[in-house]
Amino acid sequence: MTAEDLVAFDRAWGRLEAWLASQSPADHAALRAPATAREIAELEERLGFALHPQLRRLLERRNGVAEPEPNSGSERGVFPAGGILPLGHRFSSTTDIAEMHEILVDVGEDNIESELWEEDDEDPAGHLHQCVPFALPNDGGVAFVDHRPGATYGQVFEMGIGSGDLEGSLWGTSLSEFVRAVTDALETGTAFSHHWPITFEHSSGRTCIAWEVRA
Q1: Contact of 47 with 175, CB cutoff 8 Å
Q2: What single DSSP character describes residue 78?
Q3: Cβ-proximal residues to 142 (8 Å cutoff; 6+ apart), any chain
Q4: In DSSP terms, which residues pair with 207 in a beta bridge?
Q5: What one-character-per-residue DSSP string does 79-93 give?
Q6: Long-range CB contacts (< 8 A, 24+ apart) of 17-25?
Q7: pLDDT tens by residue, 24-72
Q8: Is the confidence at residue 187, as pLDDT, over 90?
């Protein structure tokens, strides 16, 4: 990881925030303030290893998104602001990351013990203890950055933990590439994988992002 990699992330993140501010202000307003150095240090202590530099930079820019307001719920299938990423994923705070990582560790241990898979070089499900979540949707899935040393270090995957889909989908070779690809889709109205971005007007009059799955 070089300084240029962090510059690349900052550039990609700046584009995303600029688009949100102009085209989806409610989602932009849902972004929380940066994580403090203490919050990041406490997260790394709970993980037991250092964060990938680009994930650290993400938290230095924004510590997840605000929690939905009490009783906000969804109206006509519409969830509150902040579901910026495909599948309605919401960026996670340091606290959310630590809690979800513990769940991933437990899932990994349970399935290895039951011999559903063996830890190997190809399958991220075999080393979930080295996967750090950074976003969660409404359906029990997880998006994470692979922290295992080697060729997969820094890659972004999405996995449907709640649905039992543990194979995982590669969403980017790096967090900066992932953010750049999502922003490309938002700016042009084209697909990220098979997820198409749309915007909708909430009953409050606010504009928010949603993603449609198309064949």
Answers
A1: no
A2: B
A3: 100, 104, 133, 135, 136, 158, 159, 161
A4: 201
A5: PPTT--SGGG-EEPP
A6: 19/183, 19/186, 19/187, 20/84, 20/209, 23/186, 23/199, 23/207, 24/84, 24/199, 24/207, 24/208, 24/209, 25/206, 25/207
A7: 998 999 999 999 999 999 999 999 999 999 999 999 999 999 976 554 4
A8: yes
What separation in angstroms does the CA of 74 have from each of 53, 77, 195, 202, 209? 35, 6, 21, 10, 14
Q: Are 209 and 197 in contact (CB under 8 A)?
A: yes
Instruction: Check: CB of residue 118 under 8 Å from CB of residue 162.
Output: no
107 Cβ contact list (under 8 Å, min separation 6):
128, 161, 166
What would the pLDDT profile of 126-156 be if each residue is shown by its tens digit?
788 999 999 999 777 899 999 999 999 999 9
**199 phi, psi to nearest 5 deg:** -120, 150
Domain positions in the chain are 3-66+80-213
What CATH number was assigned to the domain covering residues 3-66+80-213?
A: 3.40.1580.10
Q: Which amino acid is at 77?
A: G
Is the Cα dihedral 43, 67, 78, 23 positive or negative?
Answer: negative
pTM for this entry? 0.88
CA–CA separation, 105 vs 114, rounded Å? 14
Element (H, E) at 39: helix 37-47
